[in-house]
Specification:
The chain is mainly α. It contains 17 helices and no strands.
Length: about 375
Amino acid sequence: MAGFARNRWPDSAEYANPTEALGLYQKVLSKTKIDNTFADYQKALSEDLDAFQESHGKGSFSQKSGLGIPEVYARQILALTETHLGLSRIYLIQKEWTKAETEATEAMSIAKRCEFCPYFISASLKKANALLETVYQRQGNQGKALICKLNTDLLDDHLRSDAGIEDFYLEKKVLLGEQGQQQVAAVEKLFESATAHQWQQNQAIVGALSAGAMMANAGLQQSLAQHALAQSGGIVTPQVQLAQMNAQIAMIGSVMFLKMAADQAATGSKTLEVNVTPWGIQTFSQQLVDPKQGANTPTIMKGFVSNAVQMGGDSYRAGAQQVTQAVDALMPYRQSGKIDGAAAQIEKFATVFNAFLTQVQELKK
């Protein structure tokens, strides 16, 4: 993660002395708490700053308001995420599969809370899915392991993409660059007027949102599109068009995630959490139609269905062929860079893909 290279975790100790490492991770959990969203902490910080100035320097700050600074909040998320990943690795060593699965899943959930850290989120999801793949393999759940491998490959493809690299630098800018420093300056210069503080808070929020520009989060992307349009004075510039495209595709992904959940509920299948499918990856719907989000996504998808057929046999061929055809039907959008009509095509893809995932997840060794 950008800006966190100096943090080191006792990976080797997990193997040399798992009991000691387990104690260390549990200590981190006991001291690291994230109870609210970043927006809540920013609000608390803003309120404390105003109250401090009104008290003429005699007031105090609540402990939670410090988490309203992007870098502070991100470091807490990092600590919690890496701790749960570490616990998952330890439980793998100890062959406690259920605990290992729970910890890896929790790591994914926590990482996603740092909305302005898109690169960190993708990197963390990649680590967690690799762990889950191992868990399912050890349990003989070939299908679930294969789906986690698909997730890992898709995440790796995105991290290496143009958009993934842009995520890295945007994230670094927020945490260590100008935008991040504005928040620190807001705390250091408490003598400034409440109006000035409020302006700095708003600027920091915009910066944090901008860092997540490539995340397929429907609400976030819509906010970015509206902000870009406002900044351009209502003129639809190429930047506005890009923001609007991301917002539209992100909304598609959000809808498809909910559809997958509904399909799982309808079939009564509880063996695979929706979050542990490609729909749990924020960039998945964008990767399907935008090569800048993932150059090798179509190849990865086809490799997945091919492996599923190899494992499952002839009963999987029909579904595999439908998914392959649906992937091919999305190619014109990747080639043209236009998404007119993409929503309907992605929905068609989702229908056959969700059905195939439901079938694949039942594969056993």
